[in-house]
Design brief:
mainly beta, Immunoglobulin-like, 4-stranded antiparallel beta sheet
Length: 204
């Protein structure tokens, strides 16, 4: 059976992230009522010390009205009100841990990342020797400390004329680190967070 285009797109954007996920410990941080549980399935995964990924997917068999696929998300008691929720599909910060509506009327599934603090910026360091140049990439919090979590990103490399050499999706590992060996002709790199949509450019 061929894959649904939406599933193929999710795999293309987040396959590297999925490699770092582990089964979630304990209860799921998202809570839905019994009625919603008949229409959607909720699962959670550890993405490292600082992050949990939650996936919400349809159970809909085609018989329910579409408007019943918009469900209200609440939180387990252990989730701090200061936790930050990111929407991976829309690449936006959902906000702090407040109830919100997950709309599956036009999507098969949605994914959210829970972090204890907000992503402030990308940390990008160039390391080079006689043989290679490596970009060391991570994402930092307000204290400028690396967030220890697998976080998705896009990397675009261009040459000195601005010609795009490569564009790839990737993810930091569970310690929040991603190393990328640059091509010889690479002169600038754009790092885009797939949680916030924020881009940072490095001239080499």
């Amino acid at each position: 059976m061929p894959h649904h285009p939406e599933i193929e797109e999710i795999n293309r954007r987040f396959k590297h992230l999925f490699c770092y996920l582990r089964p979630g410990d304990g209860a799921c941080p998202f809570v839905i009522d019994a009625g919603a549980a008949k229409r959607v399935a909720v699962s959670h995964h550890s993405a490292g010390r600082d992050a949990t990924l939650v996936q919400i997917g349809r159970k809909w068999d085609g018989k329910l009205p579409l408007d019943e696929l918009a469900v209200t998300i609440g939180y387990a008691p252990f989730v701090e009100g200061t936790a930050i929720i990111y929407d991976l599909m829309d690449e936006t910060m959902q906000g702090k841990a407040r109830p919100f509506v997950c709309d599956l009327r036009h999507r098969l599934s949605r994914m959210y990342m829970l972090l204890p603090y907000q992503i402030e910026s990308a940390s990008i360091e160039l390391r080079e020797d006689e043989k290679r140049r490596v970009l060391c990439i991570g994402f930092t919090d307000a204290r400028a400390e690396i967030i220890e979590a697998a976080l998705p990103l896009e990397l675009r490399v261009s040459d000195a004329t601005g010609k795009l050499l490569s564009a790839t999706y990737a993810a930091t590992n569970r310690l929040g680190q991603f190393d990328y060996e640059l091509p010889d002709q690479g002169s600038s790199v754009v790092v885009r967070s797939c949680l916030t949509g924020q881009e940072e450019t490095v001239r080499l």
